[in-house]
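re: ur question from earlier - yeah i can do the single chain one, its not a big deal. heres the input i used so u can compare w yours
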Amino acid sequence: MKKFTVNAIGYTEVNEEGFFIQLLPEYIAGIQGLEGFSHVDVLYWFDQFDVPEMRTILEVEKPYKKSPDILGVFATRSPARPNLIAYSVVEIVTIDQAKGRIQVSYLDAENDSPLLDIKPYTPSTERVEKPEVPEWCKHWPKNVETSGDFPWEEEFNFLSI
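and the output i got, formated as tokens:
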């Protein structure tokens, strides 16, 4: 199997002021031209789950209250997975080009999670007009804009993950 190296380009900040993406100084030039995009794709590392036993989990017991009793990890958004890569589409609030700091509306990450990559969200390649989902999650919001008002705490069985 081929091995490769991924280097963090920054880290996430989650604090009382909000949600931020902070680039390391050597990567700040990479956000030039990002102004004008409303959203970005963020790839980061679930570093708090980076232990060998978490990487062997391939099935989880009822991670969602209305899901089947067992789901394969690739049918979930669980942080326990063979490669601890996380992905979120987030809305840009502000960009401080000089500091390499991007404030976003929300980010499903822990403070100080290693940032792997950011890409501009472009609907021409990423938007699916009529996605299909299993029956147990058809009642979930249809877009990121309405997701913030959804009672997610009523959906997850966090202790079983």
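The longest helix spans residues 52-55. not sure if urs matches, ping me
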